[in-house]
Each structure stands twice: as C-alpha cells, then as structure tokens.
Write a structure and sequence with these properties.
244 residues; alpha/beta; seven-stranded parallel beta sheet; binds fructose -6-phosphate
Length: 244
Amino acid sequence: MRVIVTEDYAGMSRKAAELIAAQILLNPQSVLGLATGSTPIGLYQCLVEKYRAGELDFSRIRSVNLDEYLGLSPEDDQSYRYFMNENLFRHININLANTYVPDGIAKDPVAECARYDELICRLGGIDMQLLGIGNNGHIGFNEPANTFALSTHCVALTESTIQANARFFADSEQVPQQALTMGIGQIMRARRVIVIASGSEKREALRKAFWGPVTPEVPASILQMHPDVTLVMDRQAAPEAACV
Ligand code: F6R
C-alpha cells in the first residue's frame, strides 16, 4: 500500500485528482469506479478544472458508482445519481450514457443488483476504484458484518451511517434506511484502488482498516489484501502509525 499524507483537504483533493488524471491519460477508455459523499467533492472540482484547462478528455471514459439509496429516483436531489451529475458529470465531456449508478427505484432491487454485477463484468471490470471510508470502516455501503458480501446487494444502513448521512437531509427521519451497494468482490477485483479520507473523525476508522486485523467488522480492512491500494489522507485523518 502507498500512503500519501497531505497538509489539508485541498492537498488531498489535488493529489487524488492527479492519480485519477494519470489513469485517464494512460488509458483514455478507463472504467472508473466512483464514490459520493463529502470527501470526493474537492477532488471532483480538481478534475473539472483539469478538464477546463484542456488537460483531460473524458469522452471515452466509463464510470460505475459504488452505491445508491433504495427508493430515491435519479431526479431526487439526495440521490447519488443527482450528486454525480451535479458535482462532476455535467461539467466534463463524459457521455452520460457511459455513466452508471445502481437504480434506486428498480422494481426488483435484487434483479437490479445482478444486472449491476453483469454490467461491471461486461465493461471488463474496474480499472481504478475511488473509495471514501465511513466512520465505522464501511466502503461503499458494505457495513460492518460477520462476513464480507461479495456481489452487489441491498443493505440496511447501520444507525451510525444514517446519523452520519443525516447532515445532508433536513432531519435523520428522511435518510433512506436501505441502499444498493457494490460488493467487496467487485471492489477487490478493481485493478487499482484509491482511498481518500479527511478530518480527525476518520482517523480511528483508518487505523483499524489499515493497521488492524482484516475483519468484516471493519469492511475496509479487506483492502490490506489488495495488491494496488493508494491511501491519500490529510494530516488530521492520518493515524499515528501512518506518520512514522
Ligand atoms: C459513497 C460511499 C461511502 C462514503 C463514506 C464516506 O458513495 O460509498 O462509503 O465514501 O460514507 O463518506 P464521506 O465522504 O461523506 O465522509
């Protein structure tokens, strides 16, 4: 695992954007696995700036997002599809038809999960997967559990995730309780993984995930077994073990 510690959130965003930009330059047809949440917003802004400066071409890029809330339509401003359109897609020259997010209002969510896994296979797998990390160590919405769920699946969000996500909603009652998420199998098969984290509230989750035992109780800990992970975090998030 490569570890990059930056001075602050802006530095983390720039570094991670450089890694994604390098991937796009090396393979302009890359399949990018993308994440939502507050952590990647700055990084998406950096990618938009690079695109506007003529440094990046997204026209042949394909993207697959990690997850979506169950019950939210793509038009809902709390949906992850809406987030991606607003924070990245509509500012760059990516073909929207080549961007994929699980369908939160699929009539049959279980069939939607199978369709999403098939889609990722059809695309040839993920070249570079971007991940944030939950305060409880989740990646995507793979919540702490007794086993690692391998394929895309429906998940009941834990109370800690609902509380953490309540900041985006008028009140915690409105936070959806379920989501569709890519499984650990698809994430682990990604050829490269970039994990980003900012702020002291992520420090303990990072310590457990990357300097503790591998356990489904800390889903991100499985990444210790991945051959190509780069962890980009700011000083506030960095566990002591990362600073030696
Ligand atoms: C988002 C996702 C989540 C977030 C994680 C961190 O698509 O899959 O795992 O990456 O909850 O969220 P933030 O960045 O808001 O702290």
